[in-house]
Design goal:
The chain has 364 residues and is α/β, with parallel strands linked by helices. The protein is built from twelve helices and 13 strands. Helix 2 packs parallel to helix 3, helix 5 packs parallel to helix 6 and helix 7 packs across helix 12. The longest helix is centred in the first third of the chain and has 19 residues.
């Protein structure tokens, strides 16, 4: 094993040898296979809870029950495959958010990551056990607001924060006009979050790691984020093009074949902008050629089922299965830089080597 200058990521009593969190990707892109492989490589592997029940045979007839069953199975499979750190990503906007959180805690998950809304009441659902709680935010204001609310109401602070910037894939926590605005880059947001949390840490004596995500592609990017005060990084796009990613090979090849101009910001039915690989499906949706449908379940609270031109979960499920004619792939801003599909361990080792090269050249 090579000796690296890259410091471990410490979240409470959890220590990830490689400070890289594999971002949670639904529907079915990051399940037990990818999460376990990432954990085995020294990082933190993450199972995405969003739409996980749709992969079950009865996912369309018993959505709630299927989600719970599938999440339990994937957590248990990941545990069988790895003794490393396993987390779950549970969107606050999910209609079954509480059930998913309780299920993950019952299964002894190491970390819960929560985005797509502020998890203001999350501590009420996680009163026992060692599960770490890591909200995903896009501003210092949101981080401080949530931390103070938890501390005042529950005498608890988040165990860390993921700070997601506008270059991320999937649903973005920004207005459309903010996505290209320099005032909302990670380079701007991360120091603000680090500074605000430092004051809370001084008051409470608790360390709250900051973990940026969105557009982080290389070891040089990791070095840059750490220089801004981050304790690690979250990466998702890079992990799609791996042997162990749980998506169909056609989904992965869409990343490898993608060019920079294939990426587009779309209007999602859930009311947030999202970054995806442009294809005929997204173009038809943008042109109004998709028609309202009958929704058998309300999986995302913010989705207006009466007017939505298509089902976002079904579109993502189709893409996960390789049927990109009937769906599309979410992707980060750097998807066009992905050139090959590699094992997760090869990816992680290359990131560490790139980081060390940058540090060595700088002489620090």
């Amino acid at each position: 094993m090579r000796i690296s200058s890259l410091k471990s990521l410490v979240i409470g009593d959890l220590v990830a040898r490689v400070p890289v969190i594999q971002g949670g990707m639904g529907v079915g892109i990051s399940l037990s296979g990818l999460a376990a492989a990432t954990a085995n490589a020294g990082g933190i592997g993450v199972i995405a809870a969003a739409g996980i029940g749709l992969l079950e045979p009865d996912g369309f007839t018993d959505f709630q029950g299927a989600c719970i069953r599938a999440l339990r199975r994937e957590i248990r499979r990941a545990r069988e495959l790895s003794s490393g750190i396993i987390g779950v990503n549970i969107m606050v906007a999910l209609s079954n958010f509480s059930d998913m959180v309780r299920t993950a805690v019952e299964e002894g998950i190491d970390v819960i990551f929560c985005g797509a809304g502020l998890p203001v009441a999350l501590p009420e659902l996680v009163q026992k056990g060692r599960t770490k709680l890591v909200p995903i935010v896009s501003s210092a204001r949101a981080a401080v607001l949530l931390a103070k609310r938890w501390f005042d109401k529950y005498a608890r602070l988040p165990d860390a924060f993921v700070v997601e910037g506008p270059k991320a894939g999937g649903h973005l926590g920004f207005k459309a006009e903010q996505i290209e605005d320099p005032a909302f880059t990670l380079e701007k947001i991360v120091p603000e979050v680090v500074g605000e949390l430092a004051r809370l840490e001084a008051m409470t004596g608790r360390n709250i790691p900051v973990i940026p995500g969105g557009g982080i592609f290389s070891g040089a990017d990791i070095d840059r984020m750490i220089s801004l005060g981050a304790s690690g990084v979250q990466m998702a796009t890079r992990f799609v093009a791996t042997d162990e990613c749980d998506a169909d090979i056609r989904f992965k090849k869409a990343y490898v074949d993608a060019k920079d101009d294939d990426l587009a910001i779309i209007k999602s039915p859930v009311g947030m902008p999202g970054r995806a690989l442009r294809n005929e499906f997204t173009e038809d949706a943008e042109a109004g050629r998709k028609k309202p449908f009958s929704c058998p379940y309300h999986c995302i609270v913010t989705c207006d089922r009466a007017t939505a031109p298509y089902c976002i979960s079904l579109a993502l499920l189709n893409a996960q299965k390789g049927n990109l004619d009937e769906g599309f792939a979410f992707a980060g801003a750097n998807a066009g830089r992905v050139k090959e599909i590699v094992p997760v361990r090869t990816l992680v080792d290359s990131l560490v080597a790139e980081y060390d090269d940058v540090v060595a050249k700088r002489g620090t």
